[in-house]
């Protein structure tokens, strides 16, 4: 293992000083309160060795990073039947785009764009009350992060509910095709709340370990999913994890990764480490600007690209 502490500290220091910080998301008003100066980076390996830099322990809104974990849960519940309701191709469109749905019979392109994640949430909800489904998701996050203190930021959830007209449009449109089966308000309520889970870089990097170690979570001491399923989730992260910035992320970083509009990115270096970076300013595709740059630097210095 390279001297990760030095690498992570160097990157955190350089990122702190950079003037180009991207733009903090404001379409969910509560997210606009995030501090554009914040920067955190945590790398954890299978032996539990941690290299942490900057704001490693400040909780932020995980937003779309939650979609990796809801996908994992839904696959555990219904297996490959999930792929009848959602595809696994990159969309080449923004994360909240609606146009493809009409051409493709209400089936979202993949589980990481908003429409796809809403369909996945609907699968988790089936047969449960929204409160139960949400509890299931939150407990899964707490277990994977090995930290029971993780909570949902109710202000962020309420803020998104008040302004989530586009997600409501996507959900209603999918309901018209039967892709959403539960009452739209229930499905959206669970979706808004799991996006509003607040976690730190350290907690998210811990939670992602099972993806870096073939489905086995080395710190929890549990097999979370099979090696085959972990490989497949990583493949979808690589091809779809950054929306229409996924190709550029693969080109520059070369790791499976999932971004969120809260400015976090969870990245997986198979067999090497689980990584989480956070910087709230976003690029034009809605992905963390400095987060991507920091990961590019990390991969350059560690040689961890999968290519
Ligand atoms: O539905 C939304 O718009 C947000 N809850 C999540 C979007 C998101 O994180 C996109 N990521 N870059």
Key terms:
five-stranded antiparallel sheet, Beta-lactamase, 2 domains, binds 6-diazenyl-5-OXO-L-norleucine, globular, three-stranded antiparallel sheet, 307 residues
Folded structure, characterized:
It is an enzyme of class 3 (hydrolase). Homotetramer. InterPro entries: Beta-lactam/transpept-like, Glutaminase. With 307 residues, the protein is of the alpha+beta class. The chain is built from 13 helices and 12 strands. It has helices spanning 4-17, 66-78, 99-103, 114-125, 130-145, 154-163, 165-176, 184-195, 201-207, 209-212, 227-240, 246-252, 289-302, and strands spanning 23-24, 40-44, 50-54, 60-61, 151-152, 197-199, 216-217, 222-223, 257-259, 264-269, 273-278, 281-282. The strands form 4 sheets. It has a 5-stranded antiparallel beta sheet, with helices on both faces. Strands 4-6-5 form a 3-stranded antiparallel beta sheet. Strands 1-12 form a two-stranded antiparallel ribbon. The structure holds 6-diazenyl-5-OXO-L-norleucine.
List the helices and strands and how they pair.
Layout: H1 4-17, E1 23-24, E2 40-44, E3 50-54, E4 60-61, H2 66-78, H3 99-103, H4 114-125, H5 130-145, E5 151-152, H6 154-163, H7 165-176, H8 184-195, E6 197-199, H9 201-207, H10 209-212, E7 216-217, E8 222-223, H11 227-240, H12 246-252, E9 257-259, E10 264-269, E11 273-278, E12 281-282, H13 289-302
Antiparallel strand pairs: 1-12, 2-3, 2-11, 4-6, 5-6, 7-8, 9-10, 10-11
Helix pairs in contact: 1-13, 2-4, 4-7, 4-8, 5-8, 5-9, 6-8, 7-8
The structure holds 6-diazenyl-5-OXO-L-norleucine.
């Amino acid at each position: 293992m390279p001297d990760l502490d030095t690498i992570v500290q160097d990157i955190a220091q350089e990122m702190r000083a950079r003037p180009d910080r991207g733009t903090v998301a404001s379409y969910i008003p509560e997210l606009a309160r995030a501090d554009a100066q914040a920067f955190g980076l945590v790398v954890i390996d299978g032996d539990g060795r941690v290299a942490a830099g900057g704001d490693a322990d400040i909780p932020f809104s995980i937003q779309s990073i939650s979609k990796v974990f809801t996908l994992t849960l839904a696959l555990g519940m219904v297996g490959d039947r999930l792929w009848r309701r959602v595809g696994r191709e990159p969309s080449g469109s923004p994360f909240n785009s609606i146009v493809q749905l009409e051409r493709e019979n209400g089936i979202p392109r993949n589980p990481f764009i908003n429409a796809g994640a809403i369909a996945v949430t609907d699968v988790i909800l089936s047969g449960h009350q929204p409160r139960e489904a949400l509890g299931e998701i939150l407990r899964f996050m707490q277990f994977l992060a090995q930290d029971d203190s993780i909570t949902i930021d109710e202000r962020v959830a309420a803020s998104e509910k008040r302004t989530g007209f586009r997600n409501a449009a996507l959900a209603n449109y999918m309901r018209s095709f039967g892709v959403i089966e539960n009452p739209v308000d229930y499905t959206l309520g669970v979706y808004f709340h799991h996006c509003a889970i607040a976690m730190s870089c350290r907690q998210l990097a811990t939670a992602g370990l099972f993806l870096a170690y073939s489905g086995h979570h080395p710190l929890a001491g549990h097999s979370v999913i099979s090696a085959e399923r972990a490989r497949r989730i990583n493949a979808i992260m690589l091809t779809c994890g950054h929306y229409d910035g996924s190709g550029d992320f693969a080109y520059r970083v070369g790791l499976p990764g999932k971004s969120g509009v809260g400015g976090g990115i969870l990245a997986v270096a198979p067999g090497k480490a689980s990584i989480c970076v956070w910087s709230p300013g976003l690029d034009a595709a809605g992905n963390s600007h400095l987060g991507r740059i920091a990961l590019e630097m990390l991969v350059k210095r560690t040689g961890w690209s999968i290519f």
